[in-house]
């Protein structure tokens, strides 16, 4: 099932690497990735990911791992 994740992240070196590492550990692929710097705060970006994950439990594990990353400010799941 396609999942749409919206993240608010810090604009720092290694932010993308930390996020993709969570996917590598769970062996899931990112199908789409969009990142846009925010106008109101140049130190923060909005990141949108489309992933294909059928298992709700694994999705929750992934979301929790993303929330644990120091450069991730928030994670939300939306309908894809």
UniProtKB/TrEMBL annotation:
Transmembrane segments: none annotated. Residues 4-80 form the ACT domain. It comes from the Bacteria. This is ACT domain-containing protein. The lineage of its organism: Bacteria, Bacillati, Bacillota, Bacilli, Bacillales.
């Amino acid at each position: 099932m396609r999942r749409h994740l919206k993240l608010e992240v810090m604009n720092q070196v290694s932010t993308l690497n930390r996020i993709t590492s969570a996917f590598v550990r769970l062996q899931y692929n990112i199908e789409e990735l969009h990142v846009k710097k925010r106008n109101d705060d140049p130190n923060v970006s909005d990141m949108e990911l489309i992933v294909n994950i059928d298992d709700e439990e694994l999705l929750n594990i992934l979301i929790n791992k993303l929330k644990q990353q120091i450069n991730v400010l928030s994670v939300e799941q939306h309908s894809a």
